[in-house]
Write a structure and sequence with these properties.
single chain; alpha/beta; Rossmann fold; 2 domains; five-stranded parallel β-sheet; 16 strands
């Protein structure tokens, strides 16, 4: 049986990216004089310049932690479009570079299948129509669904409602519906806040439950029995009577619209004590803390403890907050370096497809079929904190 080989890539305890697999050919010392060349393809001008620069700083942070010796990066501007991404990639290819971190956006991948000699570790989270020479390294929907599936089983929810806005996230919703998660019903709501409230009221049968309460109160008011009077006191504190037909709800949405949906449930007298509410990865959006309707909201995500370490280190180095997603670019550097170092100073894209996987700052992951499948954790919003529950 092969011995598991684990090696620390970075000199800081802050980050290790470890192969969980055997590497019989790994060597502790690099052959003197060999250089690892890494291309970087990010939007460094235009609308998304600030985002690109944050990712570039995260890459530099990883280089500082590893050691700048034997590693050179070659940043190029993708300008967040497919043509410039292609032209910059061809330039990197002509320089003899065979591995690139980026592009950031799915739209920039369109022509990269024409660049035959480079493996791209893209930060996109899209999972469909990925070019054969591109690895989708983002937190993808499949990894999130796998984490939710395990948690659903743990807490034994059986009637989950799937909610998604009309015309939005169609591909993601299709993936979710075709996954092993079993949904009681799928519901597509209007994106207008006013219409959302009306639709959630109908979905939860709010008016019917309110009428049921009123009818029951009238009956009890006519009774002199002690138990009826006690029940009456209890019902007079309530807004509706009766339960909904589902025990959990997965809302495929983000930002203000997600808040509108969950607030509409609260206005329809459905609390998180009755129904377990879930959403997708939200990158620990702290604005959720100020919303009563979002208390106990659950979502899959990367390792929060390590993300905080990354943010602290980034802030100390650059005196500004990072784009949180840039932790993936940091991990991409460690991944490439690990594969290169353990192949005698040569990078071969096949090393990325180690079936036993790797461990990065954002968590454990395995690359297969052009996708990075992450072992995510499930968190919930509670008392202005994100609490890990699984």
């Amino acid at each position: 049986m092969k011995k598991i080989f684990t090696i620390s890539i970075l000199t800081y305890l802050l980050f290790t990216i470890n192969s969980i697999a055997t590497s019989e050919n790994s060597k502790k010392n690099l052959q003197k004089g060999k250089i690892l060349k890494i291309g970087v393809l990010l939007p460094l001008s235009g609308e998304f310049q600030n985002v690109g620069e944050s990712f570039l700083k995260a890459i530099q942070l990883a280089l500082n932690d590893i050691s700048k010796e034997n590693i050179i990066i070659y940043p190029r501007d993708s300008k967040a479009n497919s043509l410039n991404a292609f032209l910059s990639a061809k330039e990197l290819e002509d320089m003899g570079i065979n591995v690139v971190i980026g592009p950031l956006f799915f739209e920039s991948l369109e022509r990269l299948n024409e660049v035959n000699n480079i493996t791209f570790i893209s930060l996109t989270n899209k999972t469909q129509k990925i070019p054969k020479n591109v690895i989708s390294f983002g937190i993808n929907i499949k990894s999130q669904i796998e984490a939710l599936k395990k948690y659903f089983k743990k807490i034994e929810v059986t009637r989950t409602l799937l909610l998604s806005p009309k015309t939005q996230f169609i591909n993601q919703t299709e993936i979710i519906e075709n996954s092993e998660l079993k949904f009681y019903r799928a519901f597509f709501y209007d994106t207008s806040p006013k219409k959302i409230t009306n639709e959630i009221e109908k979905l939860t049968k709010y008016k019917e439950r309110k009428k049921d309460l009123q009818r029951r109160i009238k009956i009890l008011e006519k009774s002199d029995l002690y138990k009826d009077k006690q029940e009456l006191k209890k019902l007079e504190q309530m807004h509706t009577l009766g339960k909904v037909s589902f025990d959990s709800a997965l809302v495929v949405d983000f930002g203000e619209r997600l808040k509108s949906v969950l607030t509409s449930f609260m206005f329809s007298d459905i609390s998180s004590k009755e129904v377990n509410f879930f959403t997708l990865n939200q990158w620990f959006d702290e604005t959720f803390f100020n919303e009563n309707a979002l208390q106990n909201l659950h979502f899959p995500a990367i390792n929060l403890k390590n993300l905080k370490k990354f943010r602290k280190k980034y802030l100390k180095e650059y005196k500004e907050e990072p784009n949180q997603v840039s932790i993936l670019a940091y991990d991409a550097v460690g991944l490439i370096y690990y594969c290169w170092k353990n192949n005698d100073g040569q990078f071969n894209y096949n090393q990325l497809y180690n079936k036993n996987g790797f461990k990065g700052l954002h968590g454990k992951f395995v690359i297969s079929n052009n996708l990075s499948s992450q072992q995510l954790q499930v968190y919930k919003v509670s008392k202005k904190k994100f609490i890990k529950v699984n």
